[in-house]
Structures are given as C-alpha cells and as structure tokens.
Amino acid sequence: MIAVGVAEGDLANAWRTQLLAVQKAAANEVTTTLAGLRAARRDGGADLIAQWRYRFDSAKAELVQVSDAVLKELRQIRTAELTSHIDRLDQMQRTWAVQRQH
C-alpha cells in the first residue's frame, strides 16, 4: 500500500511540474512580448507598435487560458490525491480492525 502511495505521489508531482512549466512558458512569453512592445514604443513606428501590441495581447490571453487550465488540473490532481489517501486510510483501518479481532 505504501509503495502504491509513493508511486502515485511521484506521478502527481511529475504532472504538477509539467503543468507549472507550461504556465511558466506562457508567462515568459508575456514578459518577452511586453519588452518588445516597450522597445517598439521607444524606437518604432505605429505599425511596429501595433504588431507588438497584438503579440502582447495574444500572449496575455494565452496566459489566462493556460493558467485557468493549469489551476483546474492542479485541483483535480489534489482531489485525486486526497481521495487516494482516504481510501488507503480506510483500508488500513479495516486491516487493523481484523488484526485486533485475532
């Protein structure tokens, strides 16, 4: 039972790490496009500013979508972990109850 719990925990942690990496990449894209927009405002014409503004707005929208999906998935992972812990504890209590009877 403990080995299964450890394996499930390892899998959940790996999945969490992947999800957070995707979210971090989306956040990095927002930072990159913001820097491009600032540079365009400083040095560029209206067309360049508009291009960078579009890229920045798109990156922000993508970050919101990614973040929402990541949070939803993280909640599902945590719910599954808690359910698994409860199931293992229930099994352990039943096992101990049987052992006490003997």
SSE layout and pairing:
Elements: H1 2-43, H2 46-101
Measured between the Cα atoms of the first and last residue, the distance is 22 Å
Q: DSSP helix count?
A: 2
Structural class: mainly alpha
Q: Overall pLDDT, averaged? A: 93
Shape: rod-shaped
Give the percentage of residues in beta strands. under 5%
What is the rounded Rg?
24 Å
Reading the helices and strands in chain order gives: HH
Number of strands: 0
Question: Helix coverage percent of residues?
Answer: over 70%
Largest sheet: none
Q: Would you identify the regions where 5 or more consecutive residues have pLDDT less than 50?
A: none
Explained architecture:
This protein is mainly alpha-helical and 102 residues long. Helices cover 96% and strands 0% of the residues. The radius of gyration is 24 Å and the shape is rod-shaped. The protein starts with a helix and ends with a helix.
Would you kindly provide a brief summary of this structure?
Helices cover 96% and strands 0% of the residues.
Give the tags.
mainly alpha; single chain; about 95% helix; about 100 residues
